[in-house]
Amino acid sequence: MERKKFEADPHRPIYHFLPPANWMNDPNGLIQWEDGIYHLFFQYNPDFPQPANIRWGHAVSKDLVHWQDYPIALAPTPGGPDKDGCWTGCAINDNGTPTLIYTGVFPECVCIATGDEKLLTFQKYEKNPVIAKPPEGMEVTGFRDPYVWREPDGWYLVLGSGIKGKGGLALLYHSKDLRNWDYLHPLCEGKEEETGFMWECPNFFPIGDDKYVLITSPLPLGYPIYLMGKYKEHRLLVEKIGKVDGCEHSFYAPQIFRDRKGRLIMFGWLREMRSAEAQKEAGWSGVMSLPRQISLKEGEFAVDVVPEVEKLRGKRLKILSNLELKGDSFLQIENVKGEALEIIAHFRPIEGKSFGIAVRRSEKGEEETLIGYDANKKAVFVDISRSSLDDSVGKTICFANLELKANILILHIFIDRSVIEAFINNKIAFSTRVYPTRRDSLGVGLFSKGGKTELEKLEAYEIGSIWK
Ligand code: DQQ
């Protein structure tokens, strides 16, 4: 019911998860339970659209894309170690007992809570915190966001941290019973000038035949990175570092879990790109990304949207094929219009130096968002510099390097009012937020600059609300 009052809000997404109202940030405790149900917990302030008195909101899904609200799972206990907030953490299956391992503040510490078999209510462990403070002698820049996994000799926990004057790092702990933890050593350390002073929200998991990945959201970078390499003697020997998302401004604090099919599924928080004042006025802030799958493709870290998103498809709007776009041309696609769409386009660059799709475009192009390929830079880009005539919202262009090996560019784009997510060649994700001001900023078109481009095919679908 609470969601109904936002129906006419032109910026509020209709098929991405977000709570009924007010503030949401990081995804927490992602898990697919034994009965197949997916659980999504999240950092939540149900009172007003700003981060304060943070609780764990909770929603469930059978298919990763349609959600049902559940009661708040964790709330601060007055006088307890989480009295100032239940911050980020994870969920694990401890031999049939759903167990949440989370951050209590202040000071930052690790707490645990166990749930009933339906994961409806959670009891906090009476001896919380289970990790009270940083290891002796360590001057840390933060100490939060536990992520836990099992190895043959017990449980391992990685905590986001940093050493003053040196840089971000992930601290590794070991336990036999999830309640008594021993600090081992850093799982991995960064240099402040390269990867920031504090690593928030670490996630650690094996990928492919013999690689491991640490995903973290470093401060002050403000966007997540992956560190990939070999895992030896409980240390990550980093071979490659890269961005998890092509845009460096919205997608943040992702969490990754392995579902029952063995897939690595990731959700992230899509931050607003408008002022706190505008968020207050709107009455809500923060959106969850679509579920993404992480894998190795030809040895490279790859992100794509999960196939379940096809369940969101409504009416098919258009199919185009074999169309030549002349140099320096723009082609409006008739009948493909809207604020909630899925578009899949395959381009074959011939001579075009810059080509792609314009979305949320007003009739005369006063507002538009461009997603395309820059052949000179050999990079895909998302350009939100002209997405809105409102000067107070974010305006930028983001790039991610991409060699068009098979000479094909596939743009898989999701538009959901202020949210745009694009998946390029099934391996690079871009997430952004746009706030067009004009009511006619609904158009979709194709552009090619500096030479011709071939559109091999395009299909588009309407997407309706998941809350009806
Ligand atoms: N958000 C949480 C912290 C985490 C940060 C607080 C990342 O636990 O480090 O809401 O966005």
Report what the structure shows:
The protein is mainly beta. Helices cover about 0% and strands about 55% of the residues. It has helices at about 190-195, 275-280; strands at about 20-30, 40-45, 55-60, 70-75, 85-95, 95-105, 110-115, 120-125, 140-150, 155-165, 165-175, 180-190, 200-205, 210-220, 225-230, 235-245, 250-260, 265-270, 285, 285-290, 290-295, 300-305, 315-325, 330-335, 340-350, 355-360, 370-375, 380-385, 395-400, 410-415, 420-425, 430-435, 445-450, 455-465. Strand 17 (about 250-260) and strand 18 (about 265-270) form a beta hairpin. The radius of gyration is 22 Å and the shape is globular. The chain binds 2,5-dideoxy-2,5-imino-D-mannitol (DQQ). 2,5-dideoxy-2,5-imino-D-mannitol binds near residues 43 and 145. The site of 2,5-dideoxy-2,5-imino-D-mannitol (DQQ) has 14 residues, from strand 1, strand 5, strand 9, strand 13 and strand 17.
Number of helices: 2
N- and C-termini, Cα separation: 10 Å
Helical fraction? under 10%
Largest sheet composition? 6 strands, antiparallel
Mean pLDDT: 96
Shape: globular
Q: What topology, given as strand order, has the largest sheet? A: 23-34-25-30-31-32
Brief write-up:
The protein is mainly beta and 468 residues long.
Entry keywords:
six-stranded antiparallel beta sheet, binds 2,5-dideoxy-2,5-imino-D-mannitol, 468 residues, globular, mainly beta, single chain
List the helices and strands and how they pair.
Layout: E1 22-32, E2 38-45, E3 55-61, E4 68-74, E5 86-94, E6 97-104, E7 109-115, E8 122-124, E9 140-151, E10 154-163, E11 167-175, E12 182-189, H1 192-195, E13 198-207, E14 211-219, E15 225-232, E16 235-243, E17 251-258, E18 264-270, H2 276-282, E19 284-285, E20 287-288, E21 292-297, E22 300-305, E23 313-325, E24 329-337, E25 340-349, E26 354-361, E27 369-374, E28 379-383, E29 397-401, E30 409-416, E31 419-424, E32 428-433, E33 443-449, E34 453-463
Parallel strand pairs: 1-19
Antiparallel strand pairs: 1-2, 2-3, 3-4, 5-6, 6-7, 7-8, 9-10, 10-11, 11-12, 13-14, 14-15, 15-16, 17-18, 18-20, 18-21, 21-22, 23-34, 24-33, 25-30, 25-34, 26-27, 26-33, 27-28, 28-29, 30-31, 31-32
Bound molecules: 2,5-dideoxy-2,5-imino-D-mannitol.
